[in-house]
Design brief:
This protein is an all-alpha fold. The chain contains 2 helices and no strands. This is Sec-independent protein translocase protein TatA.
């Protein structure tokens, strides 16, 4: 997202406003935020599971 820049982001927001209208934008933003939150939660659970598995393997090797 760092490649977009401020002007590109403003353009995207203006296009979204034109396409969806001002009444739908907050609803779309909430849905996007909820989706992003679920994605982060899922990825953190996956990486946590991998870390715990690796830790168990290391403990077995040390015994």
């Amino acid at each position: 997202m760092s490649n977009i820049g401020v002007p590109g982001l403003i353009l995207i927001l203006i296009l979204a406003l034109i396409i969806f209208g001002p009444k739908k934008l907050p609803e779309i933003g909430r849905a996007f935020g909820q989706t992003l939150r679920e994605f982060k939660k899922s990825t953190s659970e996956l990486t946590k599971g991998d870390y715990e598995e690796e830790k168990k393997i290391q403990q077995k090797n040390h015994e």
